[in-house]
Design goal:
Chain A is mainly alpha-helical. Chain A has three domains: about 140 residues, MgtE N-terminal domain-like (MgtE N-terminal fold, Alpha Horseshoe); about 100 residues, CBS-domain (Roll), CATH 3.10.580.10; about 170 residues, SLC41 divalent cation transporters, integral membrane domain (Tetracycline Repressor, domain 2), CATH 1.10.357. In chain A, about 70% of the residues lie in helices and about 5% in strands. Chain A contains 23 helices and six strands. A three-stranded mixed sheet of chain A has the order 1-2-3. Chain A has a three-stranded mixed sheet with strand order 4-5-6. In chain A, α8 crosses α10 and α16 crosses α17. At the A-B interface, α1, α2, α4, α11 and β1 of A face α1, α2, α4, α11 and β1 of B.
């Protein structure tokens, strides 16, 4: 059967009305995938332990660089180092770009500066920068000395941009043509020119000062006739990214305007590079991960870093929480006499604090997320605050009644039931308000709300919880 | 100055070594941006309130659909509805694809089925499906009845795929050519054919049964000569996405293999559609947001839903936490007599529980995140567990000594200091272990660890915290 556009068409038509298949049992698929990965990793580790180099190379060669990087990330440090010692220069340089944190450091640590230089030269500039920024300054210098002139200058220029800026993410190779060129001229240029990026998705049109004046996706060029002028085809609606923009902002622009690539411009608005969406996908993932971890007081989610580093990165948060817990204990200590008289207070008081903490965490997390996605701004803070207050009054009242009844029955003490109910309503209102106000205030003060909100908010609900419950008890029960 | 490739080159060279500018003061920029948005929103709201329709249309027309959608999301419901009542069919259909949750429901609620049908016809199929899945079944039927035959069938086919599957994300328009075509034939086909997607980034090569056998990015086609055969240009290394695959898995494949678009195949491996990265960027963002919210016990982060809905979505979690808090109180109640004798126990016991809870939350969050990014699998669970245990012993010991000394001095009771120190070490070890084991076990049981981990882990650390501290106190102090 020969396939021509004419008989391709009905095929498309048929595909369009095709009914979906039943979905595969996803969990089975997943664990099958994981099992295959585990089996492969076991084979590789066995080959390393047995010194079977040929077998090892065969196993590794068939893998996509991203999958090999995953396996290297999952290995223990000993085998990771042994594997790289065998492969050395034969390790696909792309693997370096897919590795992260401690695993990348260990792999690079095995290689000689000359080997790293060779690998880096095979990468696009943005990826090379990404790898080299992991090195210590002195080691990086050693590597760069062995990188040929032009690449070295480009890499050094990339490294000179601030960390996490658009300048670090961009590649310098791109296609830029003058507006008066025809499609035919552009295609001819593309076919003749050797020094072009591997993949590109749009063609930029620049003025004589190299300022971008328009752009067009490749699909437009392909559908145009050879005589059409670029200036007639291009759109001047184009998102330009300042080279110093933070990567989180860059990711926002890509997401907001559904970009696949975008032009990067310097302060004088000249085109200096291009960022492609594949790098942005990693940034979005990274930033989302940072927020999740920051809310829990963790600055580093890398499972491959050492016990010592993990301990150090988490200790500060725990110490801070110890201090706030002691503050809450000072509040309890104020009511020692009441507790001695009515031990039920000691039994019930953690409930009031804990419910406030949970309600506050809910509100705070929604607020932190909404701030990150820009769904919570100065415009609607007051409205959202009102809603959260209403929600905490509604939920707080219902839960307070439930707990009040339980407490009254448990300790055969109606007044105690009313005191705990009142304390819960108070604390959950405070929780709703502080869950919004703390992250919003931190954002205003230019402090990352994901990093600092939790400790403030839970301190507030602990202290108010103990104070409201024990204070009311001291007033009305003792 | 005329610009030719020859004098473009040095410009590129110059750009490559250009030093970066100092970064703009980012916060100022951001708040300027936010201020501009706030001012624009105020103008729009004033135009709505003043009934100045012409002014309103002028303000709205100049906006990018994504920015208008943001503003609509930030407005209160009253103005949101009023705006759509003015614009009606003139509302850019793309705005619907950028709106989310409650705001989208409200906007659609204003429009007549005929108006929605008209808007939906202007969208790509995947976006149309995205909008229509928000409607009630009966309303959706009313809309679909007014959509012309071919589009309706395509939309219905999309809606028939399971929610959150590749089938819902894909578009059906794509470029597929036979392998024996030349580049010239392909270009001619592209130029003549009208029914093509707006944007496409690769050309798929299919066999006579419409099974994908290769692909090439557009840039390859553009750099090839007109006589070259597609089969010689294409790469057969290609990521094929099963149509029933969950969107989280699809996002994983895009991230793992740096895809810009990918072919979607049905059960018999025929090409049925194409997914592009712009939709995946939204999925990644959405899934990351879901995990953050789920850890805090929130199933819905939409700031625009009603107070009633917010209360309902959060109540279950709070009730569950109330029950676990009562369980912890039962443990305290067992030691009522000890607390009556030594009220310092009531003062200090929340510290032990809270430190365990914080340490566990740190470990658990790292584990949940590492499970999501597949950096924690069956292969390295045991190793990671060992590390976490070591970390919790190290940090737990240091913090326990600090707290032991404070307690001993505060209550002039050395034995009390030793008891709280021992209880803290025990609870933080339990925290480290449960922080890993609970999420890993939930994942094995096919329960989303982000949703269920927190309540298990904090219940464990509360109960063990109170039990260890009060139990040791009862044994050694009373």
């Amino acid at each position: 059967m020969t396939t021509t556009p004419e008989n391709l068409e009905p095929e498309i038509g048929e595909a369009e009305v095709a009914r979906p298949d039943t979905p595969p049992a996803e969990t089975e698929d997943l664990s099958a995938e994981e099992e295959a990965q585990t089996a492969l990793l076991r084979d590789i580790v066995e080959a390393i332990d047995g010194g079977r180099e040929a077998r090892l190379r065969t196993l590794v060669e068939s893998l996509h660089s991203a999958d090999l990087a995953d396996l290297i990330g999952l290995m223990d440090a000993h085998h990771r180092i042994a594997l790289v010692e065998v492969l050395r220069a034969d390790l696909d340089p792309e693997v370096l770009t897919e590795l992260e944190g401690a695993a990348l450091e260990q792999v690079i640590g095995v290689l000689e500066p000359g080997e790293i230089a060779e690998a880096v030269c095979k990468l696009e500039i943005d990826d090379a920068v990404d790898v080299l920024e992991e090195l210590e300054a002195s080691e990086r210098q050693q590597v760069l000395e062995q990188v040929p002139g032009e690449e070295r200058m480009a890499i050094e220029a990339g490294l000179a941009y601030p960390e996490d800026s658009a300048g670090r993410l961009m590649q310098r190779d791109l296609i830029a043509v003058p507006p008066f060129w025809s499609v035919g001229q552009t295609l001819e240029y593309l076919q003749k020119e050797d020094d072009l990026p591997n993949d590109f998705w749009e063609i930029f049109v620049v003025d004589p000062h190299y300022k971008p004046i328009g752009t067009m996706p490749l699909s437009w060029v392909m559908r145009a006739t050879s005589e059409q002028k670029m200036s007639d085809l291009m759109t001047s609606e184009q998102t330009l990214i300042p080279v110093a923009l933070d990567q989180e902002e860059v990711a926002y622009l890509f997401r907001q305007y559904n970009l696949v690539s975008a032009a990067v411009v310097d302060k004088s608005e000249r085109l200096v590079g291009m960022i492609t969406v594949d790098d942005i996908v990693d940034v979005i993932d990274e930033e989302a991960g940072e927020d999740i971890l920051a809310l829990a007081g963790v600055s580093e989610g890398d499972v491959n870093i050492s016990v010592r580093s993990i301990s150090r990165t988490r200790f500060g948060w725990l110490l801070l929480n110890l201090l706030t817990a002691i503050m809450a204990s000072l509040v309890i200590a104020m009511f020692g006499a009441s507790i001695e008289k009515l031990v039920a207070l000691a039994v019930l008081m953690p409930i009031v604090a804990s419910m406030g903490g949970n309600a506050a965490t809910q509100t705070m997390t929604v607020a932190v997320r909404a701030l990150a996605t820009r769904e919570l701004t100065a415009v609607n803070t007051f409205r959202v605050l009102g809603k959260e207050l209403a929600v905490s009054i509604m939920n707080g009242t219902v839960l307070a009644i439930i707990m009040g009844v339980i407490a009254a029955l448990w300790f055969s003490n109606q007044a105690l039931g009313m005191v705990i109910a009142a304390a819960m309503v108070i604390n959950m209102m405070v929780a709703g308000l502080s869950g919004i106000l703390v992250p919003v205030a931190l954002e205003r003060l230019d402090i990352d709300p994901a990093v600092a909100s939790t400790v403030f908010v839970t301190t507030i609900t602990d202290i108010i919880g103990f104070l409201a419950f024990l204070g009311l008890a001291a007033l009305f029960l003792i």
